[in-house]
Amino acid sequence: MKMLINGPEHVVSDALRGMAAAHPDLTVDVENRVVVRRDAPVPRKVGLVSGGGSGHEPLHGGFVGRGMLDAACPGEVFTSPVPDQMARAAAAVNSGQGVLFVVKNYTGDVLNFDMAAELAEDEGLQVAKVLVHDDVAVIDSSFTAGRRGTGGTLFVEKLAGALAEEGAPLDRVTAVARQVSESCRSFGVALSACTTPAKGGPTFDLPADELELGIGIHGEPGRERRAMMSSREIADAAVEALLADLQPDGPVLALVNGMGATPLLELYGFSAEVHRVLGERGIPVARTLVGNYVTSLDMAGCSVTLCQVDEELLRLWDAPVRTASLRWGC
Amino acid sequence: MKMLINGPEHVVSDALRGMAAAHPDLTVDVENRVVVRRDAPVPRKVGLVSGGGSGHEPLHGGFVGRGMLDAACPGEVFTSPVPDQMARAAAAVNSGQGVLFVVKNYTGDVLNFDMAAELAEDEGLQVAKVLVHDDVAVIDSSFTAGRRGTGGTLFVEKLAGALAEEGAPLDRVTAVARQVSESCRSFGVALSACTTPAKGGPTFDLPADELELGIGIHGEPGRERRAMMSSREIADAAVEALLADLQPDGPVLALVNGMGATPLLELYGFSAEVHRVLGERGIPVARTLVGNYVTSLDMAGCSVTLCQVDEELLRLWDAPVRTASLRWGC
Amino acid sequence: MPEMDARFFLRWLEAMTAAVDREASRLTELDSPIGDADHGSNMRRGFTAVAVSLTQTPPATPGEVLKEAGRTLVAKVGGASGPLYGTLLRSTGKALGDAERVDGPGLCAALRAGVDAVGQLGGAVPGDKTMLDALTPGVDALPESVEAAREAAAKGSEATIPLLARRGRASYLGERSIGHEDPGAASSALLFATLAEVAADVR
Amino acid sequence: MPEMDARFFLRWLEAMTAAVDREASRLTELDSPIGDADHGSNMRRGFTAVAVSLTQTPPATPGEVLKEAGRTLVAKVGGASGPLYGTLLRSTGKALGDAERVDGPGLCAALRAGVDAVGQLGGAVPGDKTMLDALTPGVDALPESVEAAREAAAKGSEATIPLLARRGRASYLGERSIGHEDPGAASSALLFATLAEVAADVR
Ligand SMILES: Nc1ncnc2c1ncn2[C@@H]1O[C@H](COP(=O)(O)OP(=O)(O)O)[C@@H](O)[C@H]1O
Ligand SMILES: Nc1ncnc2c1ncn2[C@@H]1O[C@H](COP(=O)(O)OP(=O)(O)O)[C@@H](O)[C@H]1O
Ligand SMILES: [Mg+2]
Ligand SMILES: [Mg+2]
Ligand SMILES: [Mg+2]
Ligand SMILES: [Mg+2]
Questions:
Q1: Residue C167 Cα, ligand 4 centroid: separation in angstroms?
Q2: How far is C185 from chain B, CA to nearest CA, in Å?
Q3: The pTM is what?
Q4: ipTM confidence score
Q5: Which of B134, B40, B136, B123 is nearest to B83 (CA)?
Q6: What 3-state DSSP class applies to B43?
């Protein structure tokens, strides 16, 4: 597989150089791999820090800015960042109100963020953590690593970010971030595997007439392989899987997310099917976001994330946000 | 090639149903394939209408809204829309100040928009047209169809749209649209062909170690096939091709555009290289947009568009825009 | 050629619809190396709509049949071929006037007018590697016989292979357009092939 | 095992760096069907950094060598393996204390402490299809001989093939994780293989 790169070892730093040049609102430490909003630390504001392996862009760097993250730490492709990155980020965004780490539930992310929290606490910072684990394809038990964190991360970062921007204290931002995390569920489908720069070829083989149901965002195979399905059938399967786990008794936010290589034309068509089946199930959709937001390099496919919201969360969703990849109201 | 669709014949209408459900700011006529901003016709405002074949999303439908297009007309995939669509769109957005058609320079688009202009003028509308023809890969002579319209379309739509939003009259909006069109140049590169729903397979064969230079946005092969190049080399080649045709004596806007399947991670890395070579050539970049904006379905690759700007155009670029896929300031 | 009535033209367009449907994937394949891989689906969508519209309310005169078909193509196809084929049939229909029946020379003259209109609209001339490279030799040979026209159009289409394209999308490719048959010329050859088919049936 | 000084541990980590470099693509391949295809590059990045740091300022005691290596892995690898391998080496190093030389039983006890720390940090137990499935049998056999430990660890890694994963990414796959060797177990087997290699050289 061909890539638009200078070599596997340069991918992450090259991308950071590109972000630095394109986004004057950001301070990008290419060497130490930390992306910080230019005006950090924002006085009297809780700092929001996230990060994870690269390859999911625009997550997380594209969500740094007013009303969302204060800093993001990109690791190597599909490899969680190292503790030093998050500790630096925490120091850079701390205004004295403490810092919240938004952590996707993967062994590596959890361990590295834990170590970072220790480092930051050693420096006298107050650190809280919220775990995102929204992927219903994974059985959540003490005999697995637990549900993966995928599309729900966007909702946690946006809603907690809006609240932090309003000046809410750390315990309240953390509580709302947890509420959002528990209110999100995701389900993903791959039509093709992705190609990591390090491996240079597809991470798994998927015949021309099959698809993978229940995939994550790291090029892992899913829970089940099936004969190729139509957009309508995929929407039915995805929403059914979501509603087996989340029974919203009110409106939801919907993220109809592309994995990277699926054209927006197809995503919108798929989104129409998601709306159809949610309508059939009587679930009102308050807001819909369609596009490539939490990706898996050049994988073809999609995921659906639903986030149950109340009035307050809906208000936070609509609040101004000013980042490279999510922006409205300012 | 697998697609996330219900069948080739449903692709465009399904996508329009999806847009309708996701974007309450838009009025989507799925049957007649016209996307109109909800508040059209905006009193005392020139109407901006564009359109073209589908498969380039978010262009054009994703650019309908305050400060950009008033309406967009999607054709079948890679097939320009029919005159009736643009005539309907013109009628829907006409506030009495006339309508400007933004037309990408393809035989089909030109002929169909011309016919639409006749239809609209028969109904008493004042119609002006601007042709976008920014692709330097095509020799512009009376013995070709002329340069293709590609990434420059985004700049024409944004800048003319901002001016129209301010209430400028048709002749002035048209003049600025033409100025922008003449100030834009683009160059594209494919790492893979795209797959159209109708054909179901790649539109051309590209070996694993080669790339196409000088491609358009319709899955056509380019001007030249070469051995695979690094991101740095591609940026050198693209900018060189651009500067052979456009010699900016001031700042430029840069669009570092993905063709559809190239990850944002790679696009940012490529953007860094574009900045590097522009810096070496002494050309200041006033603003940079990195992402999938003018795509070619699931093609892997990228294009670079430069648009020379003066103070006034830069002001128009920064003016508020509120569309599905380009948004700031509101 | 015997005198032709509206039914003859309806049958012609029916035959063309069937031919385009049959050949759609070949036309799209031809449009892949030097175009955007949609000519077959464009033609199929257009002529299917023509068949529907002509079946619903069959016009009474040859001129009306062709004008209605042309209008339908413009309204349903889009792309380059929509306006160009639409203009071909509309201009041919207009030239036929409102006669109930058309003779051979009348059809020759009208088709010539149609082909001229295509040249005018698209700015192409024979040799530019477009549909005109099948239409022009077809019309030129038509006074001799429909069979001769069929053959000439087919040959004209084949003869586009070594040409360098100067109009339409294929012109973007420059030298690389050489070595491929023009899809619009191929579909235009079908227009004469189906004309010959229907004329033979009538005889 | 003879007594081991700091140089011995430096050589062990050098050998491990070389082994990981040599086996990187195999480890990444193992991480493809049941993981995210980065274990080889993670290990290579980490041990290359270890080699650099230990060459620049070689610590004076066995304990310091391993602690410095562990710190480097934590600082450079990321992912699950960074903290886990980092903890393994740091905890082993801590258990060695600041002695200049270590004997066989001392190394056995210290490595046991390191492996226990891995279990504590990651919450896995043998049989969960993780690196512990090579580390645990390796440490268990070490009192017998380094050769026995090498063999036991290699067997332990192979024995992960039929297991259903209960920790790490492979656990997402449920039943589909069966039939593949765990990449972390495979790299852990290399740790004992290189230990045996270096011990044989010294003897
Ligand atoms: N300017 C022109 N004059 C005559 N025929 C043209 C011209 N441009 C294109 N064509 C014809 O149209 C054909 C392509 O039609 P089609 O693929 O349906 O439209 P598009 O090029 O818009 O995709 C070409 O093969 C060529 O024969
Ligand atoms: N909880 C755990 N306890 C012990 N080892 C684990 C645990 N989770 C993962 N591992 C080990 O880590 C290996 C994967 O390492 P690596 O691929 O480098 O990290 P990542 O899984 O973050 O991509 C697995 O093969 C497994 O041996
Ligand atoms: Mg990883
Ligand atoms: Mg076309
Ligand atoms: Mg075509
Ligand atoms: Mg891994």
A1: 14
A2: 16
A3: 0.97
A4: 0.96
A5: B123
A6: coil
